[in-house]
Specification:
Length: 63
């Protein structure tokens, strides 16, 4: 399973961890994805959606 939101396409971002001594090591930040049963195209399916999309109402949850 990919670490990408099914609604907005938000995925992992990369950068550096920087210590107090200015040492740098690579770091990956992942979006907060949740498995949600949602209505898409008239059918109910389980999709991975970021919490931003859930909170802003872009996802119609199945009952």
């Amino acid at each position: 399973m990919s670490k990408v939101c099914a609604i907005c396409g938000k995925g992992p971002s990369t950068g550096n961890n920087v210590s107090h001594a200015n040492n740098k090591s690579s770091k990956t930040w992942y979006p907060n994805l949740q498995k949600v049963k949602a209505v898409r195209g008239g059918t109910v399916s389980t999709i991975k959606v970021c919490t931003r999309c859930i909170r802003s109402g872009h996802v119609v949850k199945a009952l």
